[in-house]
TrEMBL record:
<feature type="domain" description="DM2">
    <location>
        <begin position="41"/>
        <end position="119"/>
    </location>
</feature>
<dbReference type="InterPro" id="IPR003121">
    <property type="entry name" value="SWIB_MDM2_domain"/>
</dbReference>
<protein>
    <submittedName>
        <fullName>Upstream activation factor subunit UAF30-like</fullName>
    </submittedName>
</protein>
<dbReference type="InterPro" id="IPR036885">
    <property type="entry name" value="SWIB_MDM2_dom_sf"/>
</dbReference>
<dbReference type="InterPro" id="IPR019835">
    <property type="entry name" value="SWIB_domain"/>
</dbReference>
<dbReference type="Pfam" id="PF02201">
    <property type="entry name" value="SWIB"/>
</dbReference>
Length: 121
């Protein structure tokens, strides 16, 4: 098998551009600026419904924090279905935020919690 220098000669080097090191430092700097600034989207703290307020223990929370607290509660009470880890058995406390359902799927959690967050005006 021939090397690329043998096939293309020295002309191959002219086709490759030099890597720019300043681009990576600028990109990393702008990413740090975004995360340290204002929180948007699912990271934004918002007022929540009375049911979720009682579950979370705070009048405002972000969507990600609400999901995390649900998972901490599920793990501590061992409410996850051992045969199907994508399924959660709801006790009375979870039924108040999950519309009284007996079981909730992993993918349903965010959808059911979104009803408890007030829409921005």
């Amino acid at each position: 098998m021939a090397s690329t220098a043998g096939v293309f000669g020295n002309r191959c080097r002219a086709l490759m551009a030099a890597a720019k090191t300043s681009v990576t430092s600028t990109t990393a700097g702008s990413a740090a600026a975004k995360t340290s600034g204002r929180r948007n989207g699912i990271l934004k703290t918002q007022p929540v419904s009375p049911a979720l307020r009682q579950f979370v223990g705070a009048p405002e929370t972000s969507r990600t924090d609400a999901v995390k607290k649900v998972w901490v509660y599920v793990k501590s009470k061992k409410l996850q279905n051992p045969n199907n880890k994508k399924e959660i058995y709801c006790d009375e406390k979870l039924k108040t935020i999950f519309e009284g359902k007996e079981k909730v799927g992993f993918t349903e959690i965010a959808k059911l919690l979104s009803k408890h967050f007030q829409k921005a005006a």
